[in-house]
Write a structure and sequence with these properties.
The structure holds two protein chains of two kinds.
Chain A: E1 2-6, H1 12-25, E2 30-34, H2 39-44, E3 55-56, E4 63-67, H3 70-81, H4 84-92, H5 94-102, H6 104-121, E5 126-130, H7 138-151, H8 154-160, H9 177-186, H10 188-203, H11 205-221, E6 223-228, H12 232-243, E7 254-260, H13 263-270, H14 279-305, E8 310-314, H15 323-332
Parallel strand pairs in A: 1-5, 1-6, 2-4, 2-5, 6-7, 7-8
Antiparallel strand pairs in A: 3-4
Chain B: E1 6-11, H1 17-31, E2 35-39, H2 44-50, E3 59-62, E4 65-69, H3 72-83, H4 93-105, H5 107-124, E5 129-133, H6 137-153, H7 158-171, E6 176-183, H8 186-201, E7 207-215, H9 230-249, E8 255-259, H10 267-280
Parallel strand pairs in B: 1-5, 1-6, 2-4, 2-5, 6-7, 7-8
Antiparallel strand pairs in B: 3-4
């Protein structure tokens, strides 16, 4: 399994798609799972539209793609782990959608759950996942633990003072000052909804807790690629993978700098320009050379601070609209750990 | 482009929201005396662009400009005390921790407390202009929806009254507005158009402007006359990007263009340069 992660807008999805195409071309059965891809990229991957269900590419042998949808996944998760009538009630609770779509680790957990299911199906030699854009992807790795916490219902424990409260305990508001306060803030009906929801969610706790462990194991064995550009925000996100990643997860196999400008532009700008070139053309190269130089500095600084394998993908100004374009992108890259991924 | 009192700067992740927020704040502080820049969720970007550490209390950045980062826990305590008139939770301890958990679990509550901090600052009359670095589009829209969500979920009572005045302040075009930041690329443009649709359809807040960041202009030169080599490559690169950007920009309503800044090394430079560029336009 390969996780492609990093800040929003750096080209994670494109790289994941490119690697999937190359893996398929190497004879591997390859699946790429993404969240909300650009239309053109989706078209390049066969225009897949079935949420959470891998679709085979009509032209590229061995290439499959799927999109991830958190809300649909959570419905599936609850139905898998809770008795039918409890699952129905949980999904119908007005808090269900709110919690699953907005709980920070919720989307990430749903994506990780889908990913684990596909790996367990064993149909693919390589599963590439483009992590949801939550806090640059760190959340993705913490999602199983956080979800266990939510479903473990620390809140229930706090609200009622009992480890496994009965429904009745909830409505004895006067008995607990904390509940009185919560009641004043939220109002009784909302509090009742929360209580009902969390109690129902508990029915699925053992299942989800067990599953979260499996998912954690998959994440631990995954190869991670962190994508960045030379902009400050993506670099900050990439740094977090070295500063904040929990010990249980393997360090990134490579940090991939995308949109790299040619190094020879910097050299050309340092020499006197050839004769008869217009001022606009000369100044244009000078500007881009300054940008290329800044990129080199940013990469060098990153390399001096963190021990990481660095890879580079050149800046392509044309849109990538076919599998061949995506494959070319990976061929043009330098330093990608393709051998580790089994890609020839 | 700024709304009279309260401006939210929103847009897809990676488009340069924090830089634009910092630039708008610096520029506003050139002509106004009491400007407040606010980081609604992740304070890292705004702090880097303003060159100061942010705290949940307003801190002076320079003459005329203060900044703060909303800290949800501090905001919760303030909210309980000032808005709901819940007496100070003297020994906070476990009670506050528990309440925080509850607030985390019920999304509408968390959002209303976060955005409530900003709205409370706007209502205080302490500031001439408040400029907010909002989270990425999807999340931002649910912050704007929070008062309506609460009004739907919560029974009549104090918290619902709070939701009422908040909703009114957000949708008041004479006081509040939203600036959407985009790039001239497929996904940012799609997300910007989607946000515009949602703001309008649900009457969440008024749109005061669309900023397109990192814009490139076509070269006034004929490419076929340039001999092969780096000069020609760089010219083609510029021309292709400019052409593709122009096509995406045309899909946006009245975009304000902010140029691509070449060779910038520190975030602090970015905000000052953008502020200067905006001054010129």
């Amino acid at each position: 399994m390969v996780l492609v992660t990093g800040a929003g807008g750096v080209g994670k999805t494109t790289l994941a798609a490119g690697l999937a195409v190359r893996a398929a071309e190497s004879g591997l059965a390859s699946l790429v799972m993404t969240v909300d891809p650009a239309h053109r990229l989706a078209d390049a991957l066969g225009g897949y539209s079935l949420v959470n269900h891998p679709t085979q590419h009509p032209e590229v042998r061995g290439l499959w793609a799927a999109t991830l949808d958190a809300a649909a996944s959570w419905e599936e998760i609850i139905r898998r782990h809770a008795p039918p009538e409890v699952a129905d009630r949980t999904i119908a609770n007005p808090l269900f959608e709110a919690v699953t779509s907005r709980f920070p680790a919720g989307q990430a957990y749903a994506a990780a759950d889908q990913m684990a299911s596909r790996i367990e199906e064993g149909r693919w030699d390589i599963v590439l996942v483009d992590t949801p854009p939550s806090e640059g992807g760190i959340d993705f790795f913490l999602a199983p633990a956080r979800t266990r916490e939510l479903v473990g219902a620390k809140i229930l424990h706090w609200l009622t003072g009992a480890r496994l409260p009965g429904r009745r305990a909830f409505f004895d508001i006067a008995a607990r000052p904390a509940l009185k306060l919560a009641d004043a803030v939220l109002g009784g009906r909302l509090l009742g909804n929360v209580a009902e929801f969390l109690l129902d969610l508990r029915a699925a706790y053992d299942g989800i807790a067990h599953r979260a462990d499996d998912i954690q194991t998959h994440l631990r064995s995954a190869t991670t690629l962190v994508v960045a550009t030379a902009q400050p925000t993506p670099i900050r996100e990439a740094e977090r993978f070295f500063l904040e990643l929990p010990n249980a997860v393997r360090p990134p196999a490579a940090v991939v700098f995308n949109r790299i400008l040619p190094a020879d532009w910097t050299k050309a700008a340092a020499l006197p320009p050839p004769p008869k070139l217009g001022v606009a053309v000369v100044e244009n190269l000078e500007r881009w050379a300054a940008e290329a130089h800044r990129q080199q500095e940013a990469r060098a600084e990153f390399a001096s601070r963190f021990r990481a394998r660095l890879a580079e993908i050149p800046w392509m100004s044309a849109d990538l609209t076919t599998p061949a374009d995506l494959s070319r992108l990976v061929s043009a890259a330098r330093g990608l750990p393709l051998d580790q991924l089994g890609i020839r | 482009m700024l709304a009279p009192e309260l401006t939210f700067v929103a847009g897809k992740g990676g488009v340069g929201r924090s830089a634009i927020t910092a630039a708008l704040s610096l520029r506003a502080a050139r002509t106004r005396e009491r400007v407040l820049a606010v980081a609604l969720t992740d304070p890292g970007g705004l702090a880097a662009h303003l060159g100061v550490e942010l705290d949940h209390r307003p801190r002076a950045v320079r003459a005329g400009l203060h900044a703060l980062a909303v800290d949800r826990r501090a905001a919760l305590n303030e909210y309980l005390r000032l808005q709901l008139h819940v007496p100070r939770l003297a020994p906070l301890g476990g009670l506050a921790a528990g309440l925080n958990l509850l607030v985390d679990a019920v999304p509408g509550i968390r959002d209303i407390i976060t955005i409530g901090k900003v709205l409370h600052e706007a209502r205080s009359g302490d500031w001439e202009s408040i400029i907010v670095d909002a989270p990425a589009s999807g999340q931002f829209i649910s912050y704007l929806r929070a008062p309506a969500t609460i009004a739907r979920l919560a029974p009549p009572g104090r918290i619902r009254q709070q939701a009422g005045w908040m909703q009114a302040l957000l949708s008041d075009r004479n006081r509040t507005g939203v600036i959407l930041v985009s790039l001239a690329e497929e996904l940012p443009v799609a997300e910007t158009l989607e946000s515009i649709g949602e703001l309008r359809a649900e009457d969440l807040a008024g749109l005061t402007g669309v900023v397109v960041n990192r814009c490139l202009q076509p070269l006034p030169a004929k490419l076929d006359r340039i001999p092969d080599g780096p000069f020609r490559q760089a010219a083609i690169h510029q021309q292709e990007l400019a052409t593709s950007q122009a096509a995406w920009r045309r899909k946006l309503p009245n975009p304000t263009e902010v140029p691509f800044l070449f060779g910038i090394r520190t975030p602090g430079e970015v905000a000052a340069r953008i502020a200067d560029e905006m001054e010129g336009s």
